[in-house]
Amino acid sequence: MLATVVDTSALWQTILAAFVAGVGTTLVFSLAIFGAVRFADASREGRSLEALIFATLAVLGLFATAAAIVSGVIVMTTK
Hints:
About 85% of the residues lie in helices and about 0% in strands. It is mainly alpha-helical.
């Protein structure tokens, strides 16, 4: 009876989860940066409504990034 040395199914699940988490967190943080830059541009040009929308996007992006980091730490520290 040969033992399985590498569980390929678990390995692929880990690779996929790491890829999704990495790309997803990067995408969400880039939306926060985009919102902050556009907020600065819109507020400088006196477009208040657009500035508010982009500020909201920036804040939501930062909250989503923080949530991704916290959930990652929780996953790593639980059994």
